Amino acid sequence: MRRREELRRRLPHLRGKLEHELTPAGIGTRLAMSTPAPLAEVVAEFAEMAGQDKLALLLEFANDLPALPADLTEAAMEPVPECQSPLFLYVDAADPASVRLYFSAPAEAPTTRGFAAILAAGLDGQPVADILAVPDDFYADLGLAALISPLRLRGMSAMLTRIKRRLRTTP
Predict the structure, then answer these.
(1) How far is the C-alpha of 89 from the C-alpha of 107, rounded, in Å?
(2) H-state helical runs in the chain
(3) Residue 120 and residue 46: Cα distance in Å, rounded?
(4) What is the pLDDT of residues 78-122, one digit of tens each?
(5) CB-CB contact of 40 with 32 (8 Å)
(6) CB-based burial of residue 138 (10 Å sphere; 0-12 exposed, 13-18 middle, 19+ buried)?
C-alpha cells in the first residue's frame, strides 16, 4: 500500500511521462489516447516498477479488491472459466455514463484477484465508450509477461473481453 501511495504522490510526473516521453510503440501514446485515466494511472504504476516489485504491486492490488455489495452473490454473476482460479464478474451498465464492475475471486488466488482489482481500479465508474476503447491487450503494458504464465495473462484478457461483450449486448 505504501508503494502505491508514493506513486500517487508522483502521478503528475508519471502522467507527463505517459503523455510525452514514451513512443507510440510503448505504453505512452497508445494508452494515453485510448485508455481511461484511472487505468492509465495503474499502468503507469506498473511501468515504474521492475521485476519482483511488479509482483508485489500486483499483490497489493489483490488485497484491495473491493468486496461485493451485500445484495450481489456469485450466483448472479458471470463465471470467467478462462481464469486459472474461480472468478466471477458482474457488469452493471444501467447508467452508461458510469459502468459499475464487480468481481469475486477467492483470497487463495492472488494473481486472479490482482487482475480483477486492476480492472476494478481502472474501469469501474467509467463510461461505456471509454471501456470499449481500451486496447484488448492493454495488460501487456503492465510488464508482467516475464513474471506470470501466459495462461494467467489470458485470464485477464478474458475478463476484459467479457466486460466488453456484456457492454455491447446491454441495451
Answers:
(1) 16
(2) 2-9, 11-16, 28-34, 37-47, 52-63, 110-123, 128-132, 150-169
(3) 16
(4) 999 998 899 999 999 999 999 999 999 999 999 999 999 999 999
(5) yes
(6) buried
